Amino acid sequence: MDLRFLSRNWYKTLATTLIAPVLYLLAFGYGLGRGVVIEGYSYLDFVIPGIVALTAMTTSFNAAGMKLHVDRLFYKCFDEALMSPIGLFSIVIGKTLIGVLRGLLSCGILLIACFVFSPMPAVDPLFWLTLFATCFVFSFLGVLVALVAKSHQDMSVFMSLVILPMSFLSGTFFSLSQIPESMRLVLWFSPLTHSSLCLRASTLGQPFPWFSFTILLFFGLAFLFGCYFILKKTSL
Amino acid sequence: MEELIATQDLTKTYKDVHAVKGLDLCIHQGEIFGFLGPNGAGKTTTIRVLTTLAKPTSGAARIAGFDVAAKPDEVKKIIGVVQQHLTMDLDLNLEENMDLHGRLHHMVSSERQKRIAELLDYVGLTDQSKRMIPDLSGGMKKAAMIARALMHKPKLLFLDEPTVGLDVQTRRLIWNLIRRLNGEGTTVFLTTHYIEEAEALCHRVGIVHEGRLISLGTPAELRQKVGLVTVETLTNGKFSQFKYFPDREVANVYVQSLPSEVKTVIIREANLEDVFVELTGKKVGDDER
User: Fold this and answer.
1) CB contact under 8 A, B87 and A79
2) What pLDDT digit, counting tens, does each position of B101-132 carry?
3) Alpha-carbon distances of A6 from A95, B37, B53, B55, rounded to whole Å
């Protein structure tokens, strides 16, 4: 049903999810960052993987989380899934997949737009693997928050207190080597930090940070089991 | 007759609110069973537990022999549920909502298409199949929810306040639909706070008050508990008093003995509201005012 919704509203959905990253790209990459060099790369080349990670996060989180939130609290049609003979894991995965699909679609289109600004170095399989994992991680997080939220305000509060700071601080727009050690330690608890590191390494031809990739997967598993236990606790 | 719903000392507590207290119930196949009580009596909570949407705090509930807590998937295959509020996906049209329900119950495509056509015809909504849910009237939405709940051919249909908010004409259409379903073999468990609905539809009624089942029987049996005839007296247009009698003859004797300050006397057949008032000291709608 989420696919049916997407097919009916694809132009609105994609347009709204792409506006922010394209603006970031123009403002930070093409405007402010013009002529800036970070770690030996042009700022535009440096920032594109960060913006891709950021887009994957916000699109996947919103697509999986907001739809479930509406289904659960406003349309109240999520009960239909809970009352059907389908396993709780399957329900979580089903609700997650729309976030993954929309995250990949938005990032794919964004990448095409990025090529217009800066022909990027090779986008290798590890880039796609990380992008796929990032979409899963934040879709699981979206589902988790939507299952816990008791009101629309709860979702907004989470977006403001967690998603928004994560967007700007997780090494998306700057290098983690530029910030104090203590701050860097805090940012290691953000899954977006690890996603940015992996995407940037795979795009710029640096050694792939498998440790960060493992932590990203760990976040995904933690969110998945979180969803399962919330459902298990409240329904049968 | 086969026992379809059985509960033993079923209790559901939310934090410090005891929504259902020690419910013992047995409902047989083929029945239309009504759970009658005011809002907040525990009717919807009972349905949520029986339909696997909420875990019982203690006690046991079995549907067709399957323990609700231990075998929820078996229970889900047997039951259809129509909740009090609209639970359709408003981003989908009627046919898509029904198709989704069929998919959730592992029905194959050809089977789903056949069943959707059958059910839309059954509830008179064939022409509305492509309409989006918000464009349907209140009665159509309720009929659509019933049709959707029947997609997987459930043996037992739960209806939570099936006619709340509907006009009288639509209410009667829904009643006829429920009777027709029951006549074709579907057991129905419904909750209502409409006295006339319980009397018109149900083979047996359970009266529930503050989480407890306080009386159970056929409408006639329940009325007999207080008396078949009610005498309502109004003194100076202000005070209403109810007395119950086994027949009109005894009621008439009582009326003749009333003092002269009693200005208005109504003699009528007792109804389930009288039973509720007698058992609880309240009218069914009192808690909502």
Assistant:
1) yes
2) 999 999 999 999 999 999 999 889 999 999 99
3) 13, 43, 28, 34
